Amino acid sequence: MGLRLRGNTSRTADKKSFKVSFNTYEPGRQWNGVEKLNLNGEHNDPAVCRSKVCWDLLRQMGVPAPRANHVRLYINGEFRGLYVNVEHIDEEFAETRFGNKNGNLYKCLWPADLAYLGSNPDLYKFESNGRRAYDLRTNEETDDYSDLAHFIDVLNNTPIADLPCELEQVMNVETLLPAMAFDVLAGNWDGPFYNKNNFYLYKNTATGLFEFIPYDLDNTLGIDWLGVNWGIRNVYNWAHPTEPRPLFKRVLQAPLYREQFTYYLRTFMDDIFNEQALFPYLNNLKQRIAPYAQADPYRPLDYGFTYADFETAFVDNLPFFHTDYGLQDFITTRHNTAEVQLDAVNAAPVLSWVFDNNPSAYQDINLSIHANDDVEVAQVTWCYRINGAGAETCVPMYDDGQHLDGAAGDGRYGAGLPAFDAAGFIDYYFSATDNAGKVSRKPVCGYLRLDIQNAALPVAINEVMAANSSTIADNFGEYDDWVELYNYSDVPVFLGGRYLSDNPTNPDKWAFPDIWIQPQEYLLVWADDDTNQGPLHTDFKLDAAGEFIGIYDNAANNYTLIDGFTFGPQASNSAIGRLPDGFGPVQPVNPTPGGPNMPITDIADLTDNQLNILVFPNPFSNELWVRWPAAGTLQMVDLWGRVVGGSFDPVSEGLWRFSADGLADGIYFLTAQIGKGVTIRKVALVRP
How far apart are CA 631 and CA 79, in angstroms? Predict the structure, then answer.
């Protein structure tokens, strides 16, 4: 692996920060799913935790932000002290947050003010301190800045009256506004809005919109190097007063965005950024890291920080140039001052987080959207037209938990349409009205579009067993491995001319016979490398150590992958499959060859300790499965110890399903309690 120093001014510090790279010498190599680690010494921060606190806050606020944790760092056996390990922002980060990684990712450092320089994209390739201010970190060979130049043009040159309409066609504003509110509350003066520094922009290829990603958050929560009292600075005049900062100044000139910015400030101050929420969290954090801060041999070298300074830093200011506030003192001052500065909240419903089930032909169409307001939301409506023709149809949406990932009463409204029988598209928008009569629309103008793909086959690989020793025998009485197909449509499907393969480089490995699979029919194919035993016996076997399995279309359609997945090592008689059948996520299931998939209910492998609890998958994207044989209380708790939303639903005896509806990505704790006995499991919610 590669190891180097990292940082800007911190490179000269006695307590160094390090970049660890697992793919420097072997491209593509990862460790636990990551290619790089950022190990930050936090030498400026006597509490050694400000950036960690901020990353936790950002994820609570729904902003795409790196994960972070404290670590004890040893190099060649030498204890180098207490460090903060921050997830690296790269194409892997983009894929986990946005579901794609082929867009342009720009690292924006000083003096990246997003001011308009002209229409020529090459003008934004200028350098400062030996590197580009807008440094393209992906697609370097193409080196095309056209998308950035267009975004900056829209941001700077659109009349304010038209800005919401135009900006929402180039940027995801619904995460930008919470990020702006965060900077103001956390006193992040070293970010883009004051110091034209420290942020990323990612062109999300799924939406065509730029995503705003914060970066480098050690100069926050009362740390100051400029002689400014950040605890009392006006929330609406946060940006640099004499230089261009269009991403803050122009955005807040639009009345719609000022209202929503105010709404987010009010919401975060009430729910997240206050003494009641943060002080217990800080006390817990302090107790966990205190022994390692005290033992850190490098922490005192730069400023002479003592262990007493570490303890004081959580509460009050210290007599160093840059430590004007302690953490608790800053939170109290910032919250109380913002209370006085804040406009009265008078926002129309804030519409955010649109989800659809990515339907193809033969699948029902479901959409949902989150609607929040300072007063009660009275109505949410979905208006659409099909294939660009005819009049709009508007239907009411309901907060009843019936569509996608919503749960009743969580503010997520859903609606649906019957399946298309061919490819097409739907143009649509959402409208919401609150009890005060204020109306909002998403998008502000125009339409969103949902493409319905013409599925080559509405057939899925539904269940796989790669180590069948006694579950089910084939027509020759042999316990061979098998693959189960499922037709999830309402029409028969002809399989002739399609293929099943365990090798993506050889998609036509085994040809299906000329047979039909009927609607909602399950079909078993024996993967036994013995075609003499019948037309549904393949010429390959499955590998119990794990491999890929996929259905492929015919040569005329370029052997397009219809459905497939990679599975890991399989125990004897274990099965993996989709829940729900056809298009749910792949996970361990009870073996049900030729029938509907069932969640795992066998809990014999648990110990006699009733508090033993298993969770999977972890990290999870929305649904967490909990295997726990006891009768007691299950709760999900956030980092501040508060019981959060979501729902635990019993699936069968000993098996529960937790739906994380309405929860922001981040770290949570699952608690299982019987009487005074409590077991805790840390889980990570990371949506694609």
Answer: 45
As a whole number of angstroms, the distance between CA 128 and CA 110 comes to 8
Q: Please state whether 477 falls in left (phi above 0), alpha (psi between -120 and 50) or beta.
A: left
User: pTM score > 0.85 for this model?
Assistant: no
Q: Give how far the C-alpha of residue 343 lies from the chain's centroid of Cα atoms, to the nearest Å.
A: 31
Amino acid type, 381: T
Q: What is the pLDDT of residue 257?
A: 97
Length of the chain: 688
Tokens encoding 111: 């003096």
Cis peptide before 111 (omega within 30 of 0): yes
363 pLDDT exceeds 80? no
The rounded distance, in Å, linking the Cα atoms of 665 and 431 is 26
Strand, helix or coil for residue 123: helix
Tens of pLDDT along 140-166?
A: 999 999 999 999 999 999 999 999 999
What is the four-CA torsion angle of 218, 220, 222, 227, rounded to 10 degrees?
90
Distance, in Å, from the CA atom of 5 to the CA atom of 495, rounded to the nearest integer, reads 57
Q: What is the DSSP letter of 369?
A: E
Q: Do residues 658 and 647 lie in contact, with contact meaning Cβ atoms separated by under 8 Å?
A: yes
Closest CA to 368 of 416, 427, 408, 409: 416
In sequence order, the 6+-apart residues with CB closer than 8 A to the CB of 64 are: 97, 98, 175, 211, 212, 213, 665
Tell me the H-state helices in 61-191. 91-98, 146-157, 163-167, 173-186
Answer positive or negative: Cα dihedral of 415, 416, 417, 421.
positive
Distances (CA, A) of 449 to 151, 175, 357: 21, 20, 13
DSSP 8-state class, residue 439: E
**Closest by alpha carbon to 361, among 463, 485, 486, 490?**
490
CA dist 504 to 57, 508, 539, Å? 42, 9, 15
Number of Cβ within 10 Å of residue 302's Cβ equals: 15
Asked if residues 604 and 627 have their Cβ atoms less than 8 Å apart, the reply is: no
Matching residue, tokens 């316990």: 479
- Report how far residue 135's alpha carbon sits from residue 561's, in angstroms, rounded to the nearest whole number: 36
Cβ atoms of residues 384 and 367 within 8 Å: no
The tens digit of pLDDT for each residue in 203-236 reads 999 899 999 999 999 999 999 999 999 999 999 9
Helix axes 246-253, 255-271, angle to 10 degrees: 110
Which strands make up the sheet holding 459-465, listed edge to edge? 522-527, 481-487, 459-465, 575-578, 586-590, 598-599
The whole-number pLDDT of residue 57 equals 96
* Structural contact between residues 79 and 72, judged by C-beta atoms closer than 8 angstroms: yes
Query: Which 8-state DSSP code applies to residue 662?
Result: T
The DSSP code for 61 is T
Pairing between strand 633-637 and 666-674? antiparallel
Provide the 10 A C-beta neighbour count for residue 605.
Answer: 8
CB atoms within 10 A of CB 684: 14
Eight-class DSSP state of 430: E
Beta bridge partners of 500: 510, 551
The two structure tokens encoding residue 596: 């509907």
Span 103-108, average pLDDT: 98
